[in-house]
Amino acid sequence: MNLCDLEFDPAQPGDTVQLLAGVYECSSFLDLNDGITFEGAGRDKTLIQGSFVFLIAFGPATATTTIRDLTFLAPVLPDVLVGNLVVERVTSTIRFFIGNGGNARFDRYAFEGPGTGVEVENASAEIANSTIRNCGGSDGIALGGTQSGAHATLDNVVIEGCDRGVFLTGPQFPFSQLIGSVTIANSKLIDNRIGVFLSDGTATVQNTEIRDDETTPQIPETGIVTVNGDVNVVGARISGQRFAGIAVSLSSFFDPGADLTVSGTVIDGGTVGIGFGGTDELSSLHVRSSKIRGQTVAAVAVGGDSTIDLSSADTPDDPNVFSTVSGFALSDGRTFVSPFHKYIDATGTRLNGVVFPTQLLDGPVSLAPYFRIASSESGIRF
C-alpha cells in the first residue's frame, strides 16, 4: 500500500511495512502505532517528503519501532514520543525528536542540515557510525529535559559545521540528581562553533578529535564549554579553537560545582588551553599526562576558589607539558573566600621546557613565560 494510506488503514504492532522505491508524499498528519517496522528499498531509492508529521505515538514502552533503508526530506517531521526506536541506514534532512521516556538507537544515520540532527528530551539515545553536517545556527545533537534529563552515547560519530556539536542541558540545581549525561567516544567534531556545550550535566569525551577545518572560513571558538557539571576528557585532541580548548565556569552562587578531569589529551593553539574560572570551593581541576601548547595568553588559566591538581609527588609518572607562544604557561588568578585549596600542585609539570625543583611559591609572583600568581592568598607547589 501507499505510505499515506496508513492514515486510514493503520499498521499494527508487529507488522512490517515495506516501501518500494519511489517518492512518498503525504499531505496530512500521519499518526502511526509504535512497534512497526518501516523498511525501504534503500536510502537513495525510497524517499519520504511533504508537509506532514510522521508521528510514532504513545504505546507500551516495550514496543520497538524500526525505520531502515530510506530517506526523509524536509519538511517532513519525524517525532517519537515514547517507546523504543531503531533507525538504520537512514538519510534525513530533518531532525528526529525523541521524547517522554523514549529510547532510540541510530546506526549509519546521515543528517544534512540546516537544523538539528537529533533532539532528545527526557529520553535516551545511542548514536553510532553516523554523520551530522551543516546545521547552520543549530546544534548537531541537542539533549535536554526538565524531568529525568536526557542521556546519550555517541560512538564513531562525525558532527561538522554546526553551532554546537553536542548540546546538553537539564534540570538545574537543586534538582541536580536528575541531570543528563553524554558519552562521546571515537568521534570527530569538526568546524563547530563550540564542540561540546554542557550545562547541568555530566560528559565523558574519549578518544575524540575536536578541530577546525582549515579549508573553510569558519573558525571554532571553544572545544568544550561547561557551565556547571562534570567533564572527563580522556585521550582527546583539541586544536584550532579561537579562544579556548576547554572552558569551565559556574552560572550562579547556588550551583553545586564543576569538576574537570583531563588525561592523555593534547590541546593545540587558541588564546587559552584550559580556562577554569568563576568556580567555587566545590569545583576541581585535575590534569594528567597531557600536552597543552601554542597558546597566546596561557596554557592553563585558573580562577575562583577551586582545587587545582596538575600532578603531585604521588603521581610522578603522569607529568604534563605546558608551553605557550606568549603569556604564561600557568596563570593563577584565584581569589579566595575560604582558606582551602591555597596551593596548585604541579610536581613534575614542565612549563615552557622547564621542570622546577621541589619548592613552594607564594603569590603574588610573575615570572613569564612560566607562571603567574595574582593573589597573595594563592601559591604553587612544584
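the 2nd protein, sequnce then structure:
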Amino acid sequence: MSDTAHLLDDSLSKENFPAETYIADNVSGHPKQLALLFFTEMWERFSFYGMRALLVLFMVHQLKYADVKANLIYGTYTALVYLMPLFGGMAADKLIGYRKAIILGAILMAAGHLILAIPAEWSFFAGMAFLISGNGFFKPNISTMVGRLYRPGDARRDGAFSIFYMGVNLGAAIGGLICGYIGQEINWHYGFGLAGIFMIVGLITFLFGQKSLGKIGLTPTDTTTGTEVPVSKQSLVYLAALLIIPIFIFLFHNYSVMGKIMFPVCIIATVAMIVLAFQQEKEARNKMLCAIVLVAFSVLFWAFYEQGGGSLNLYTERNVNTFGMPAAAVNNFINPFYIILLSFPFAWMWLKLAKKDKEPSDPMKFSLAFLQLGFGFFLFVVGAKLALNGQVGFFWYALGYLLLTTGELCLSPIGLSMITKLSPTKYTGMMMGFWFLASALGQHLAGVIGTLMAIPSEGGATTVSAIESLSIYSGVFMKIFYVSIGGGLVLLLLVPILKRWSHGVKS
C-alpha cells in the first residue's frame, strides 16, 4: 500500500501557522506525542483497510455486480481517494489547521463506515462517498503533524516516520485480517460496522490526546489580517466537505464518466508541466523533466500493483488454496505484513549502500520496482501452471506477493521525496498535485485492467470452473509481467539520462 503522504509536510504546507514549539526539542528520544499520532493513525488504517478488504467481494456476492462493474467502481473509489487529500491538505494549510482537519476527516470516515453497516441499497455508495471526503482531510494532515513534532533537519524525523509507517501497516494488517474474516464469514455489514467502531476509537484517541500537542496544528493565521482565520471562512470547508459527497455518489452511479474525466485532465496537466519545465533555466528544467518521466512511469506501476484491492481479492477467493481462511482476510493481510517485516531491513540496506556510495539512484529504484513487480506476477503464473484442480498453492501466491511488496518498497517511499528534491521550490506544490493526479489515474487504470480478468458470473456465483477462471487470471498476469519487465528495462536504459538530468541530486 502506498502511504507516502507524510512527505507533504515538507512540500505543501506553508509557514503561516502560529508560532509552534517543536516538542522534540526537549526530549532525548521521540516525544510521547508520536505515540498519540501513531495510535490514531493505526486505528484509522484498521478501519480503512478493513473496509477495503470487503469492498469488491461485497459488490460481487452481496450486490450481485458483475466483475467488470465491481472493478470499475473500485477503480473510481480509489482514484477519488487519491485525489481528495490534495484538497484536504490545502484546506488545512490555509483555513482550518491540521487538528480540525483530522477531526473533520475522522468524523466523516466514521460516518461512512457506519452508513456502510446499514443493510440498505442506498448505503453502499453513500458510505463510500463519506469515506472519500473524510480520507481527504484525515490522511495528509495527520502525517504532516508527525513532521511538525520535529524541527526541519532533525535527524529523528526519518526514524519517526518509520515508526509511524509501522502504525499504518499494523493497522492495515489487523484490519484486513479481522474485518475481512468477520465480513466474509459472519456478516458483511458487521465487518463494515467493526471498521466504523475502530475509526471512532481513533477519533477518541486524538480528541483526548490533542492537548499534549501544544500549539502544533492549530488554526492558521489569515495572511491578509495576521489574525486567526475567521470562523466564516472555516465553515466553508465544512460545507464543502459535505457538498462534495453527492458528487461522489453521482460518479459511482456513472462510473464510466471517470475515464472521460481522468484522461483529458492528466494529458492537459502533463503538457502544462512540460511547458513549465521548458520555461526554467537548464538545471531546473532538466530536474523537472526527470520528475515528469518518473511520475509518468508511476501511473503504470500503480495500475498493476493496485490489483491487490480488486482483481486479486477475487482471484484469491476463487483460485488460491488459503487453507480455509477467507480470501478477504488473507489477501489484505499479507501485503502489510510483508511491509512490517521488510521496511526496517530496506531502510538499513539503503543506509549501508549510501555509506559506501553505492545506493541506487531514484530512477534505478523505479526500474527495480518494475522488475520485481513483473516477476511477482510471473510467480502467480508459475503457481497457476502447477495448480491442482484450479487451486494455486499458497507458497506461490505468498512468494509472488513478496516480490510485489519489495517492488513497492523500491518506489512508494521515495516518490513524493523525489518530487520535493527535483521541483523548483516555487512549483513544488504544483508538482505534488501532479504526482497525486498521476497516482489517481493509476488507481483508475487498476480498475480498468481488473475488467480484463472478469469471470463470467450469475447472481454472484461464477459460471465457469476453477480451472477456466484460473486460465483467465494467469493470462492477464502474464501480460502484466511482460509490460512490467518492459517498463523496468526501458527505465534501466533511461537511468543514465535521468541521472544526468537530476544534476547530482541524491536519494
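Strands lie at 457-458, 461-462. The chain has 14 helices and two strands.
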